[in-house]
Amino acid sequence: MKNVLKQIQSSIAILFEQTARLYAAGDAAGAKRAYQQWLTEHGDSPLAHAVYFNLGVLQAETNELPAAERSYRSALNHQPDFLQAAFNLGTTLEKQQRFVEALASWENLLALPDTVSGEKLDLLILALNGRGRLLEDLKRYSEAEAEFTRSLLLKPDQPNVIHHWLHLRQKQCNWPVLSELPGLTPEKMLGYASALSMLDLSDDPELQLKAAQRYVKEKVEPDLLPLANPTGYGHCKLRIGYLSSDFKLHAVSMLTVEMLELHDREHFEIYGFCWSQDDGSALRQRVLAALDIHVPIGHLSDAQAAQCIRDAEIDILVDLQGLTAGARINILARRPAPIQVAYLGFPGTSGMPFIDYTLSDRYVLPESALTHFSEQPLYLPEVFQVCDRQRPVGPTPTRASCGLPEDAFVFCAFNNNHKYTPELFTVWLNILRRTPNSMLWLLADNESVQPNLLAFCAQNDIAAERLVFAPRALPPDYLARYRIADLFLDCFPFNGGTTVNDALWMGLPVLTRSGRTFASRMAGSLLHNTGLEELVVENFEDYENLAVALATQPARLADIKSRLSAARENSELFSTAEQVRKIETMFCQIASYEPEKDMSAKKSSRTGEQTAAAATSTIAVTAPVQSDAKRFLHVGCGPQRKASTTRGFNSDDWIELRLDINEEVQPDIVGTMTDMSRVADASVDAIFSSHNIEHLFPHEVPLALQEFIRVLKADGFAVITCPDLKSVCALVAEDKLIEPAYQSAAGPIAPIDILYGHRPEIAMGNTYMAHRCGFTEKVLVSSLQAAGFATVISITRPESFDIWAVASKSPRSADEMRALAAVHFIK
């Protein structure tokens, strides 16, 4: 018997070696045949379970899911306690959307005691996390939370599990959300919160930016090259692509459907790239009918989907998804369009460096908040939202049919439950306490919400019957409910977006609190636009007092409702056609598209010699400048923002002006430095020019510096950086011309790149990246002095191979120059 077993072990070793070679050579089919042949000959072997398992892995990798399922089941038939096979079987069943069976398969692993270690512990955690994720998808939130809790007790440091666990608690109103677990403090949990959860957890814009950037860092694939033609395509009609997984019965489609319908087809072609599930809704059919071209990309990988968008030559790609569930940011990371814009899907910064702009207004995204936004704002003149004036409304229900008393004052709050916080809910209960004949009408989005909120009421001595819970309803019936409520109570710090729009459209006043973040200012933006800014407060004390006042002063509330009714006809928010025209104007500006001109001539001008006139489109979308504000001119900035300049400029004391053309079109670095005719004499306080001057020919350097002198005020100064050829040549002397000297955001940089320009960009046709002259510290300082700068201070940074200089137009003391250097030389 021992000899037979030895022979089988030997044959398996040979089999595994053979299949490994076949797989490495790309012959997965040959490897599967080898496994199947061995099983035909040795199917009753005591080691057959291992062969079945390996065969199942190969079949799963080649998407033969039913075959992989059979192989894993055969492995378990031969060895019932084969835990890895049980886990893989569950994964295979989930991919076939057989969710209940997948959960059952993983249950076998849950019998493992929490004291296991090594591979068994890893499998137990995988099974708990797999079940938690699937139960969350099935909206069985309390069960999902229990699985994730056990997983975190076994292994606390799991960022992805923590952010799911937190959001589950938010959805269930299971407070406090940041509940301490062994090895996990609330502070540590907050550091792992997802970007979406952070909108509910904090009104701190810095925390929201960090959460978004953390997600992007974790999820974006490395070393992705941009696909889009940076010079554009010169289409006679501008091609706008909308990217979303929500072309269905979803809040984003509810807002945008009429915008899609009203786009000007004479000058725009509208594409929709979506991975939405067909929910059979009338809204989905309306969205698809509003598109000129609908391209489903759900079956494509991120790389294939990005190439599909690139092949369509989309001029502007509008991301309606952001960092919400189902996000596919690696499509955007490949930059399939030369210009990429965020809109509506995510009410905060995406943290994505490959998203150029965000459509907003000056209330929802004030200039003071731009330091915490990775995107540049495209400010719509009045309000950031569009809406659907054609949304169908059902018959008005009776209060009795909704479980509401006829004579009560009804506060309603129909935002998603995850937006509720204990601080906010305490204020709502205080309002009920101070208005005895009142009710709070809420949504109960899952089975855990109602008991959790009623328990909170009991803790605060509010009777359960003061709350009425409404089930989900189809949009027409949901809208009709607003007609029988008296006042909408908005959430904080994550305001309602679509829900507030719906309430106002239906004539229901909304009380909101505005804060510091985009998400906390959405409702305030809508109320200001409809002339109801008195319903916007800045703290919970005023929120509570105003709610009580409105509930007890019927004449005051009636006046507000009358003005809201008039706003339906004359406010920008509900003038959808006008809003669409203004959005289209923004699109034309950022794409340098001029509909009235012959587009073939435009295309020729893009590919021919660049001119100063072509270098000015983004000025139109920068912030208006107040006469008493300090202004710095950001020269040749491309995709860089104020936050990417220096510590000195990245403050509320400075307003950024940009002179570059649309940064996704070939940047006219030469034109914007040698001809600043659009900038008045002595009109700016400072200039920031980072790594531009080396792109000029030597004879153009004096012209550019003389332009700097001309536009600067008498006491103005310029901050200039460029490569340091002295430190680079030291590496060249060591024969390290093409060896990476340091790592940049664009990839490894070798001395040859510093001398002549970034090779990958130049190879892609971006010839503007070529370097045409060079500087040492001595040469740069002498050039600045020759141009007329009175005082210059400079440093070299050998570790970064660059030179930094501050050049003052007027004489300054050494102490003044050192003070300028202190805030501008170190980022």
UniProtKB/TrEMBL annotation:
Biological pathway: Protein modification; protein glycosylation
TPR repeats: 49-82, 125-158
Keywords, sorted A to Z: Repeat, TPR repeat, Transferase
Domain Methyltransferase type: 663-720
PROSITE patterns: TPR
InterPro entries named in the record: Methyltransf_11, OGT/SEC/SPY_C, TPR_rpt
Any Pfam family the entry gives: Methyltransf_11
Coiled coil: none
Record domain O-GlcNAc transferase C-terminal: where: 236-390, 398-580
Classification via PANTHER family: PTHR44998, UDP-N-ACETYLGLUCOSAMINE--PEPTIDE N-ACETYLGLUCOSAMINYLTRANSFERASE 110 KDA SUBUNIT (PTHR44998:SF1)
Listed name of the protein: Tetratricopeptide repeat protein
Native organism taxonomy: Bacteria, Pseudomonadati, Pseudomonadota, Gammaproteobacteria, Pseudomonadales
